[in-house]
Amino acid sequence: MAKPSTIDVFRHLIASLMMGLVTFAVSPAPTFAGQEQTVEEWRTLREKALAFEHGEGLPKDLKKAVSLYCQGAKSGDPEARYNLGWMIMNGRGVPRNDAMAAYFFKLAADQGHEPSQKMLPFVGQPMTEPPECLRETVSASDEIEWVITNEKQRRLAELIRRLAPEYGVSPRLAYAVAHTESNLNPHAISPKNAQGLMQLIPDTSARFNVKKPFDPEQNVRGGLAYLRWLLAYFKGDVTLVAAAYNAGEGAVNRYLGIPPYAETRNYVQRILAVFPQREHPFDPAITEPSPSLPQIARRMARAKL
Predict the structure, then answer these.
(1) Domains of the chain
(2) Cα–Cα distance, 282 to 264 (Å, whole number)
(3) Closest by alpha carbon to 70, among 241, 277, 265, 297?
(4) The pLDDT of residue 36
(5) What digits encode the pLDDT tens for the residues 248-289?
C-alpha cells in the first residue's frame, strides 16, 4: 500500500482541524468501483503534480500541477480530486472558484474520501456541469472517424452523434457501444437474438419501447435510453455500465463488479479503448442507484490494497 506523502498528511490535518476533528493518519479511500487504473499509477501522477505544486525537485509550476491533478481526477483518483479542489478553493494556479472546488471535493467524497467530506461544508454547493478538464476534448469529426468504412456507416454514425445528446450520453461512448456490438450494422442478429445497431435483446426493446428493432433510429434511441439508465444506476461508472450492457446489470450486481466472463471482460476493454474516460455524467433522476454499489466499492478497495 502506498505511503501518503507529508503534504497529503498535512492537508488532511488542516481539513480535520477546520472541522475540529484531528486525525493522525490518512486511510486510503475506496477507489471508484470498476476502475482498472491502479493506485500505484495514481500515486506516481499525483507525486509529480505535488512536485510541480511545491517546487520539490522540479521548478515550481502551479499550472502544470493543476493539469496533472486534472489527469488524475479524470481517471478517478480521489486524492488528485481533493488536491485539485484544494488548489481551486485557494486560487493556486487558477482563479478561485468555490463551486468548482466543491465539485471535485464532492467527487472524492462520494468515493469515501474523508478529508473531502470534511471540506464540503466550507465551499458550498458544487457546480452542476462538469468542469472543463473533465469534459471530452475530441471534436465531433474525430469522434466518428474510427467507425467509418463506407457512406452507409457514415450516415449511421451521424445519426448516433445527433441523437446521443438528447439522452445525455457522450457520442463517443454511444459510438463505442454501437461499433463493438454490431460494427454499425442495423441488420445484425446475434446468436442470443440481440438485434440491430445497438444489439437490443427483445426484453430490452420492450423495456424501452422499441417497436421496430431493425429501424436504425428506433434501435439507437432504445440503446441510448438503456445507456442513460445504466449510467444513472451505476452512478456514471463506465466500466460497470459497459459490463452491464454486455452481461446485464443483474450479473454486475451478483458478481459485485465486472463478471468473470471472458466475453464481458474483453467487451469492457474494447469500449474503454475507444472511450477511455472511467466516469460519465449521469442524471440521478432517471433511477435509484444500484444497491450493490457500496459493496462493489468496498470490494474494489480491498482489491487495491
Answers:
(1) 6-133 (1.25.40.10), 140-304 (1.10.530.10)
(2) 23
(3) 277
(4) 41
(5) 999 999 999 999 999 999 999 999 888 888 889 888 999 999
pLDDT in tens, 186-218: 999 998 899 999 999 999 999 999 999 999 999
DSSP string, 171-214: HHHHHHHHHHHHSS-TT-B-TT--BTTTTB-HHHHHHTT-S-TT
CB 155 within 8 A of CB 162: no
Verdict on whether the full-model pTM lies above 0.70: no
Q: What distance, in Å, lies between the first and last C-alpha atoms of the chain?
A: 6
| Sole residue written with cell 451505476 | 234
Residues in a beta bridge with 73: none
Q: Indicate the residue type of 178.
A: A
Is 90 exceeded by the pLDDT of residue 219?
yes
Residue type for 164, please?
Answer: A
Q: Which residues contact 100 (CB under 8 A, 6 or more apart)?
A: 88, 126, 127, 131
C-beta of residue 228 within 8 angstroms of C-beta of residue 167: yes
- Active-site residue 41, yes or no? no
Chain centre to alpha carbon of residue 116: 18
Centre a 10 Å sphere on the Cβ of residue 211 and count the other Cβ atoms it contains: 9
In whole angstroms, what is the distance from residue 31 CA to residue 10 CA?
Answer: 21
* Average predicted confidence (pLDDT) for the chain: 81
Active-site residue, from 53, 143, 181, 249: 181
